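User: Predict Acetyl-CoA synthetase-like protein's structure from this.
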Amino acid sequence: MTKCYHTEFQKIAKCNPTKPAIIFQEKTISYKELDEMSNSLGHYIRKNGVKRNDIIPIITERSFYFVVGTLAIMKAGAAYLPIDPEFPKDRIEYMIEESNSNIILTYIKNDDNNKKIKDLNLYSKNIKEYKLSKHNYNENTESLESINESSDLCYVMFTSGTTGKPKGTLITHNNL
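Assistant:
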């Protein structure tokens, strides 16, 4: 039996559509809303050429956008790579380069962190920065067909390496 995190989430969302899935500060998002928001963003990600088992960096400050973004990445068939915007610029750059991604998702309000991301010159490396707060979450809210197997990547975590370079650990849906 193939179980993936995002398909299990969709089952829960169908059973509990009006229940709160996220409560963050003054905002409450129901399971149905979260499902539809992540579907919408997932369609956008797929439309931008992301394929099964691609790794997509997501750089966000603490917000509901992180949850929407990670679900959308999984629904698109890819794996997410969480990157803290507080990390040093060199570490962020290294992690993005290691992902071989052509797109990163961001939600950053802090001016210093925004400057840090801008200074990475992503466009010169043919990497598109997509701001999660700019997405129209009311478009393409229908479910995406799942293209993953449970042995596919779900997310990647970088840890401090003994060589001084971060090392990526690949986590599959099976491992959740």
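Strands lie at 20-24, 27-30, 55-60, 79-83, 103-107, 128-131, 153-159, 167-172.
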